[in-house]
Design a protein that fits this description.
This protein is 47% helix and 8% strand. It is built from 10 helices and 3 strands; from the N terminus they run H-H-E-H-H-H-E-E-H-H-H-H-H. A 3-stranded antiparallel beta sheet has the order 1-3-2, with helices on both faces. The longest helix is centred in the middle third of the chain and has 18 residues. The protein is globular and about 55 Å long.
C-alpha cells in the first residue's frame, strides 16, 4: 500500500523528466551540519542552480541577479527591500564560510559583486576579473524582484499567445512548471511567438535548449530556424 498518496501531500512528487543539478558533496554532508542560517543555505543552493544554467566562461551570478530572482525572493517569504537585504546578508555569510567566492568590479561608475562557487579555478578567474585581465562586460542589469499584482499564469499566457489549451497541452504545461522556472516558460512562449512559431513543440525545444546550453548571463538567447529544427 502506498503510504504517501500524492493527493494527500503538499508536493505532488517529482515529474518523470525531472532535472538533476550537480551539488558539491560537502554541502550535503559536513557543511549541512554547520550552516544554521536558512537564508545562507537558500542563497547558496540558488547560486548553484543559477550557475548550472549559465553558458560560456567565466560563469558567475551578480548580486543584482540574485535580488531579481523570483524563486529566491519568494522562498525567503519577503518582498522588495526586505528580501534584497536578506539575500545580501545570506550571501555575505556564504562568502565568510567559504562556500562562495566573490569579486567586486566597477562598471558604468557602479560597483557589482560577482559570485561563484569557491574552487581554486574560480578563485583564479575572479582574481583576473578583479585585476581587469579578464573582461566580463557588459554585466547583466537586474532590478529587485517584487510580486506582480496581476500576472497571467502560463496557462493563460499560452491561450493568449499560442492557441487553445487542450487537456494534453495542459498536462505538458504542468510538467514544464515542475521542470523549469516560470520565467523560462513565459520567456520561451514569447520567443516562439516573436518567431511566429506558435506551438508547444517549439516552445519545449527552446526550454530544452536553454537547459542544456544555458541562457547566458541571465539573458535568453535568440533562436533562428537553424537553431531549432522540426
Amino acid at each position: 500500500m502506498l503510504m504517501n498518496n500524492p493527493k494527500d501531500t503538499i508536493y505532488k512528487g517529482f515529474p518523470r523528466k525531472v532535472r538533476y543539478l550537480p551539488v558539491p558533496a560537502p554541502l550535503l554532508e559536513s557543511l549541512l551540519e554547520e550552516i544554521d542560517d536558512l537564508a545562507e543555505l537558500k542563497c547558496t543552493l540558488r547560486v548553484i542552480a543559477m550557475l548550472h544554467v549559465k553558458k560560456g566562461h567565466p560563469r558567475f551570478v551578480t548580486l543584482g541577479e540574485l535580488q531579481a530572482d523570483r524563486t529566491l525572493t519568494r522562498s525567503l517569504g519577503q518582498d522588495g527591500d526586505s528580501a534584497s537585504q536578506s539575500i545580501e546578508q545570506g550571501m555575505a555569510k556564504a562568502v565568510r564560510r567559504g562556500t562562495i567566492a566573490v569579486a567586486s568590479v566597477e562598471e558604468s561608475g557602479a560597483r557589482q559583486q560577482l559570485f561563484t562557487l569557491n574552487t581554486e579555478v574560480n578563485r583564479t578567474t575572479l582574481e583576473k576579473i578583479a585585476e581587469g585581465t579578464t573582461q566580463v562586460s557588459p554585466l547583466p542589469v537586474s532590478e529587485p524582484w517584487v510580486e506582480p499584482e496581476d500576472t497571467p499564469n502560463i496557462f493563460a499566457l499560452y491561450e493568449q499567445n499560442v492557441g487553445m489549451l487542450s487537456p494534453m497541452i495542459a498536462d505538458e504545461l504542468r510538467e514544464a512548471e515542475e521542470l523549469y522556472p516560470v520565467e523560462w516558460i513565459s520567456e520561451a512562449i514569447r520567443e516562439a511567438v516573436g518567431l511566429n512559431k506558435r506551438s508547444w513543440r517549439y516552445i519545449s525545444r527552446i526550454l530544452e535548449r536553454w537547459e542544456h546550453e544555458g541562457r547566458g548571463h541571465g539573458k535568453p538567447g535568440r533562436y533562428s530556424k537553424k537553431a531549432v529544427r522540426y
